[in-house]
Write a structure and sequence with these properties.
four-stranded mixed sheet
Length: about 475
């Protein structure tokens, strides 16, 4: 039986780190195992976790306690498979194959995420390791024989440098990244644009902490990472995977309570706004005002939409999220909203709806909404449990909707959909021919380059003679 172990020493990590890691293991493996925590303070740790006293906690500072895990004093049988994982690790997908990596008498370690990038980085990192008990007692024996000299020799890299030194011969060390490419990643190195698609374990090192990364932007002299709300979907103590992590509900809300991440400019390719400086906010208002005027001049878009909505209200619900956004990056949200209680936040999150929301806000209308309710703000509102259930709230039914475990209710973009309220001549594939050149041209005019555009939009821009390379 595999022994999955972690180490909790001192005050840096509370019991919630142990409990959340334990719960994440239960959610993401079917492999038979025991979960152990070696610690100097077992208070608050889940009773289901096996606990063992960390004998050198007072003598060994910081990470050096980790080397004791290679000692003969460990309460395991010779050849038991040990899988060690740091407390500041986030398990986000199944780890069965990772736990069952064939043992060859060596140690499987992380390749330092900065190796080849930072001059001071060693090659091996000890945040996730696997070995068989008894195979490397020498790592601990050599260390404890003269710990003062060992610490001096290995600083500032600590325990992982010591392990690296004594596993540096051929056949003594393998790397997770070579065995499972893309599955073990670094938060700071790999998660700038969200959770990588194939990731199973996200490793944290230094700042920010796991809970900080969900709600706060991180910046140092090398990188800038916006807050990543998806982290909270994985960092909790629930041991069973929820069928759906949010409740999907139908509600009616004052339009002015909803933040229009897309704004009044239509399609999803304009969600790149992240300049929240004073000059950036002024430019944003100028761009959106000129866009509205331009669309009215071209085809009467906003005038016709406003007239229609004032006559019959909003025909179809907006798709919004209650709580931190899942489909949009927090850098597209004004900084003053980052510190607010997530239960107070409502974001437009559908593939359409920016123009309708703008008109509704202008006239202080109440709008119908399908809410991905991550904060359970509306416990008494009608719940939607299947994709078909939601269609009763539409007057102009979309061709396809679905419910996703990580995103909630999703209304995919339909390029041939008839524009809401505006008639057949305003299908999406027709209006985008007008909208894209106008919008991108205005962005370029004020010094902003619109990136991550769909290929068909790039083709429209090319045909319109818009060259963003000069921005």
């Amino acid at each position: 039986m595999i022994k999955i172990i972690c180490l909790k020493w001192g005050k840096k990590y509370g019991a919630e780190y142990v409990n959340n890691l334990f719960a994440a293991v239960q959610r993401n493996t079917t492999v038979e195992h025991e979960f152990w925590c070696f610690t100097d303070d077992a208070s608050g740790i889940d009773p289901a976790i096996k606990k063992h006293r960390l004998p050198y906690a007072k003598e060994l500072n910081i990470w050096w306690n980790k080397l004791w895990l290679f000692s003969s004093e460990m309460p395991f049988q010779i050849n038991d498979v040990i899988f060690y994982i740091d407390l500041d690790s986030l398990i986000v997908d199944n780890i069965d194959k990772i736990l069952q990596v064939p043992q060859k008498g060596d140690i499987v370690m992380l390749k330092d995420f900065y190796y080849g990038i930072a001059k001071t980085a060693g090659k091996a990192a000890s945040g996730v390791m696997s070995w068989t008990h008894g195979s490397r007692f020498d790592i601990w024996k050599r260390f404890i024989a003269n710990p003062v000299q060992a610490v001096k020799m290995c600083e500032p890299h600590g325990d992982q440098r010591w392990i690296e030194i004594f596993t540096d011969q051929p056949g003594q060390r393998r790397y997770w990244q070579d065995l499972f490419p893309g599955q073990l990643v670094s938060y700071k190195v790999h998660c700038h644009d969200g959770l990588p698609h194939h990731a199973a374990i996200v490793c944290y090192h230094g700042k920010p902490s796991i809970p900080e990364s969900a709600t706060k932007n991180y910046r140092d002299n090398k990188r800038s990472i916006p807050a990543q709300p998806w982290v909270l979907d994985y960092w909790h103590s629930q041991k069973e995977k929820p069928m759906n992590p949010c409740k999907i509900r139908y509600v009616e809300l004052p339009a002015r309570q909803i933040f229009g991440m897309v704004g009044r400019c239509g399609g999803g390719y304009n969600t790149i706004w992240e300049d929240w400086s004073t000059s950036g906010r002024i430019a944003r208002e100028k761009i959106t005002t000129e866009f509205e005027s331009g669309m009215n001049s071209i085809c009467g878009h906003y005038d016709r939409l406003e007239s229609s909505m004032l006559k019959e209200g909003i025909r179809n619900p907006l798709v919004i999220t209650g709580g931190l956004p899942r489909k949009r990056d927090m850098k597209y949200v004004p900084p003053e909203m980052h510190e607010r209680d997530p239960a107070e936040l409502f974001f437009l999150e559908g593939t359409t709806g920016g123009s309708r929301l703008y008109i509704a806000q202008k006239h202080n209308m109440t709008v119908s909404c399908i809410v991905n309710d991550w904060q359970n703000v509306f416990p008494n509102a009608p719940e939607i449990v299947s994709a078909n259930d939601v269609l009763e709230y539409y007057k102009d039914r979309p061709k396809r909707v679905f419910i996703d475990q990580k995103q909630g209710f999703v209304e995919p973009f339909d390029n041939h959909k008839i524009g809401y309220h505006l008639g057949e001549e305003f299908s999406e594939d027709k209006i985008v021919q007008l909208r894209a050149p106008l919008w991108v041209g205005l962005m370029n005019k004020y010094g902003y380059r619109v990136n991550r555009l769909p290929e068909f939009v790039n083709k429209i821009l090319q045909d319109a003679g818009i060259d963003q390379s000069i921005v």
